[in-house]
Amino acid sequence: MNPPTWLRGRLGVLLSLGPACAVETLPGVPALLLAPVGLWLLFAAPVLLLRGLTDKVVSTRSGSLLLAAGLAVLLDILVALGVNTVLPLLGVERPLTRLVLASATTLVLLVLGTLAPQSRRPLLRGAPLSGARPVAWAAGVALLLSVAGPIRLNNGLGGAVSTAALVVVAALIVLLLLRHGRCSPIVLEAGIYAASATLLLLTSLRGWYIAGHDIQREYLYFRLTLGGGFWDISAYTDPYNACLSITLLPVSVFRLTGIEDIYVFKAVLPLLFALTPVLVHRAVRNVAPPLVALLSAVFFMAFPTFFTDMPFLGRQAIAFLLLACAMLVLTDSRRPLPLRRAVFTVLLAGVVLSHYSTIYVIVGTLATAFAVDKVWRAAFRPGLARPHGGTRTFLTWWTVAVPAVLALLWAGPLTHTGGQLESTLRVVASDLFGSGDARRGSSDTRYSLFGGAGVTPEERLADYREDTIGYTRADRADGKYLPLEALAKYPTPVAEKENLPLTPVGRALDTVGLSVPALNGVLRQAAALLLQVLVLVGFVIALRGRSSPFTPVRDQTTLTVGALAMMGLFTLVPQLSVDYSVLRAFQQGLLFFAPFIAAGALWAVRWAGRRAVPVLCVLVAGLLLDLTGAVPKALGGYPAQLALSNAGPAYDIYYPHAEDRRAAMWLNQRAAGDDLVVQTDRYSFSRLQTLFTVRTQDSVHPALLRSQSYVLLGSTPTRKDEVTVFFRGDLVTYRYPRDLLDTTRNLIYSNEGAAVYR
Q1: Which of 331, 395, 457, 629 could be bridged to 494 by S-S, CB 3.0 to 4.6 A?
Q2: Residue 745: which residues within 8 A CB-CB, separation 6 or more?
Q3: How far are the Cα atoms of 293, 330, 555 from residue 535, in angstroms, in the given order?
Q4: Residue 259 DSSP code
Q5: By the 8 A CB rule, do 311 and 212 touch?
Q6: How far apart are CA 532 and CA 586, in angstroms?
Q7: Closest CA to 410 of 342, 346, 450, 356
Q8: Could you tell me if 403 and 366 are in contact, meaning their C-beta atoms sit under 8 angstroms apart?
Q9: What is the distance in angstroms between the CA of the first residue and the CA of the last residue of the chain?
Q10: How far apart are CA 680 and CA 711, in angstroms?
Q11: What is the torsion angle, in degrees rounded to the nearest 10, for the CA atoms of residue 707, residue 709, residue 715 and residue 721?
């Protein structure tokens, strides 16, 4: 008798593990073979073996696969953490090698395949594929352009291909919206994934080296872990080093796949994060109609933080992936509640290991939601009225307490990296009790309905200069810094904002009296306010239950209250807006309240009747094209976007240049053994920190120039005489007085892109 299909598939996976492990342990295996084998061991095989478990947690086939993908990522982290913890006790000094990781992964998968429940549901056989052809064509073109566009820009060519990719993404989303009733769920989710991956890759693939902000430091701690073959938090007690999503996970991927290390960060992590909008769709689809679920995923992708910041935040990307899996579990009420709560808590434990700030915000959201639920239950006592969304609630005291305790343990006695949290809480207490300064907050709060006007760049730069002079006063008196009298002749005015030149379309609008720069600014501000208004509108109509496109479960409602409460806290408390961006907090909040935005949007276009969906398509496509930079690119009059141009503020401070790297390597040799510190600006240091082997200070502001030091000016300071600082949550660019260096230093190196003074 032949075994059933589900058993044959499982047996095939188990039989593949031995040959795969053998390939990993052989020397000299070509990368073309090693990459698919490693990806099979790390992701594909765990997903297939975990399906039996995830089938018991969620009820849909795609939900089961998506949850298995999230658990596979968490399993990879735990396997690496296990060998890193146990093997040194047995005398193995470098446990994070290919042989050890491949053997441990294979062993864990064998145990998992033997003990885990078996899935009786076919993987794809029988899955409807209605509407697949046009979606597949649009998705394929978008993904092709998402790679070709950055390659052209990295080679110094124009951004037309990348702009075309955004247009194709908008067309793909419109296609999904128009055909959502005729496309099967798997086709819709494939289209969402392609759109998501395209938006992320257009940014993440910029530059031939690591480009971006936080990713530079993430890559540094990954390299330290990789170089030592061992993750040691005691060697570098930094919160970044405690994020296993950017240390152990990338090391496992690099070791087992042979993918070049920079592309683990530039491609593998973004492609994993691209699953998050798909998870948003699937989680919302559990409780809402297809159109609400699709719009929820689209609004999650359309928010600018998704495609401008998240490609450079590997630790938060993995944390959001696991949080989205947790929301999938929460909304699928067709499976046993105790098991769902247990898996929900396990996923949040994975967030603890992935990113410190994300779990703190989650705990605050959960605690607020739990408190709101208790008040709600008290208000609707049995016999008086039935609470909206049913009588049972998912959240319980231990689903809040366990993640909170794990977060405190991880940041405290286990890694000793809670110093940032403690300092933040001290400043927050100062702000809350009236002694704080509102000007300490980030100007991003101006996008909030409840935010202020923000602080001008001139005010922020003046505060920065005053602070630097204050904490260097004693050392300046001892002659370690240049005297203030000598600096008085060298002002540092704020640099003018550099916009794209007006295009023919932009000039045509300008000739009729319409200011294109003002129009672009108004559109961005209006988009931010629109999303917030739609949240509130959708929340109100969902609570009323009249004319609402969907009826949320009570946990969605209370979690939305919790997320909005955290947003309000981040807006009103200055230090929180600095330490954890308001915009990132909104992106995280979208995992909870995206369906309310979708409901608000559908309510807003209800006047169009049968034409509501086409009207919605115009609104969504326009919003996406504007926020991604395609509209400003077509008009001009707005700062260039990194994904579309070799210009603009993000390009100036985040893009890595070969000239900078050559200057840093030359300076390493020149300053080796020298007691003098190397001074460079914050963002040149960020791009070069993995190269520096000498003592370095990341500021060249005149008030911080030492009397004796090397000074390295990177590409932007050298070519444009501009330096950017990050202070109290804001970026401020000022004109740099090169004459000061010419007067007080000697130019000892120049390559027409970077310069070194001594």
Answers
A1: 457
A2: 711, 757, 758
A3: 15, 20, 16
A4: -
A5: yes
A6: 10
A7: 356
A8: yes
A9: 82
A10: 6
A11: 10
Q: Please list, in sequence order, all residues whose beta carbon lies within 8 angstroms of the beta carbon of residue 37, skipping any fewer than 6 positions away.
A: 20, 23, 24, 29, 256, 257
- Separation of CA 20 from chain center: 32
CB 59 within 8 A of CB 335: yes
Residue 679 phi/psi, 5° resolution? -105, 135
CA atoms of 686 and 664, how far apart (whole Å)? 12
Spatial CA neighbour of 178 closest among 518, 679, 615: 615
In whole angstroms, give the CA distance from residue 677 to residue 664.
13
Provide block-wise average pLDDT over 10 residues at a time, the chain (758 residues): 56 90 89 92 95 92 95 97 94 93 95 86 70 90 96 94 96 93 88 97 94 92 93 89 95 96 96 97 93 95 93 95 96 92 96 91 93 81 44 84 94 83 64 55 56 73 87 83 85 89 89 85 84 88 76 87 86 68 87 93 88 91 92 90 92 91 91 86 88 88 89 91 85 90 91 90
Q: Judging by beta carbons within 10 Å of its beta carbon (0-12, 13-18, 19+), is residue 418 exposed, middle or buried?
A: buried
Report yes or no: 3 and 11 within 8 Å, Cβ to Cβ: yes
Instruction: Put residue 230 in one of left, alpha, beta given phi > 0 → left and psi -120 to 50 → alpha.
Output: beta
Q: How far apart are CA 285 and CA 293, in angstroms?
A: 5
> Per the structure block, which two tokens stand in for 70?
């999230």
Q: Are 320 and 279 in contact (CB under 8 A)?
A: no
Q: Which two tokens stand for residue 490?
A: 């060298």
Query: What's the per-residue H, E or C state across 298-361?
Result: HHHHHCHHHHHCHHHCHHHHHHHHHHHHHHHHHHCCCCCHHHHHHHHHHHHHHHHHHCHHHHHH
Q: How far is CA 23 from CA 228, 237, 347, in A?
A: 24, 36, 31
C-alpha 665/C-alpha 659 separation (Å) is 10
Burial class (CB in 10 A: 0-12, 13-18, 19+), 97: middle
pLDDT at 388: 43
How far is 306 from 281, CA to CA, in rounded Å?
16
Bridge-partner residues for 731, per DSSP? 726
Q: What are phi and psi of 734, to 5 degrees?
A: -130, 160
Q: How many residues does the chain have?
A: 758
Nearest Cα neighbor of 264 from 325, 193, 317 is 317
**Could you write out the three-class secondary structure of 692-734?**
CCCCEECCCCHHHCECCCEEEECHHHHHHCEEEEEECCEEEEE
Whether residue 56 contacts residue 68, with contact meaning beta carbons closer than 8 Å, is answered with no
CB 641 within 8 A of CB 629: yes
Q: Which two tokens stand for residue 677?
A: 């510190």
CA nearest 303: which of 500, 530, 145, 542?
530
The count of other CB atoms within 10 Å of the CB of residue 223 is 17
Q: Residue 131's pLDDT is what? A: 74
Determine the Cα–Cα distance for residues 522 and 638; give it in Å rounded to an integer: 11
- In sequence order, the 6+-apart residues with CB closer than 8 A to the CB of 61 are 121, 127, 186
DSSP 191-243: HHHHHHHHHHHHHHT-SSS--SSHHHHHHHHHHHHHHHTS--TTTS--TTTT-
Q: Which residue has the tokens 């809040």?
A: 400
Write the CB contacts of 314 (distance below 8 Å, at least 6 apart in sequence).
214, 215, 218, 245, 246, 250, 265, 269
